[in-house]
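Model it.
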Amino acid sequence: MQNPVVKIALAVAISAASITAVSAQKLKVSSFLPPNHTFHKMLKVWSDEMSEKSNGELSLEVFTSGQLGPPPRQFELVVAGAADLAIILHGATPGRFPMTELAGLPLSHPSAGDLSAITSRRLTELAPEYLAEEHAGTKIMWMAVTPPLKIHSAKSDLSILDNIKGQRIRYAGAIWQQIVEKLEAVPLPIPPGQSADAISKGVADAASFPFEATKAFDMAPIIKYSLEPGIASATFAVVMNENTYNNLSPEMQKIIDDTTGPDRGEAFGKMWDEGEAEGRQYMVDGGVEIVQLSDTERAKLESAVAPISESFIGALNDSGKPGSEFVAAYTK
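Modeled.
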């Protein structure tokens, strides 16, 4: 017969294990990006931090490469509760996040410094006042602004803007569509993960990506020229289902609050900036020629894209939204 004291101790241990099993939560994260993307490196860091602070009760389970849905469905997956969190590319659903996309206006990024660290922090700081309405049904963990996207071509030297004319360019978002059109090229709304395949098969001639993404999507083997400087950034957000957050205990909510926000946006942006340098070197090592615009060609570019900013800001102002106010706060 088992000792009563042993039986009681065993029962307590089983009960404690059951409580831990019930209380431990793995939040399901949907991502359309490949496993080697910088976002997933930061999600791993964040998950480990939450797990440590919660004694293993709170962590993330990430589903990569669009396992739960393609890029345009990521926001709705979270709102519907099919995922607890998701990585949102705002440009994947043109017109759905018009205020947020103003952070990607052409040639509006800082001219020096850790570009993504600066802009990602700034956009996260502005999100509660200006962007929460566009993300209704979710809680924004942090915003992310890419280093300015470059045009990468398998066809011709892009340092002469006239060489861009007629090229079929993969893009994402309404702003980049207009940039491509202003350069008299043909915009193709190809999902990021399909871009290399589209270029290798001759469906597209070029694509717009930061250097970091060219490494993630293995673009070097099919690209001949990359154009510097970048023209316009793309915006992302990590968002959580509002009900998921509200149903967590106050202790778990505090852990999430303490590990997200502007500091996380800046930390991720810095990681992105470091990845940008690595991505550029990846392209160089892959035989891609990095070309730049002369002062004359840059002036042509500035003249071509200036009406885009005026149009997008004006449309939001006319609709009663604070477009000019937001841009002024973001670019100060």
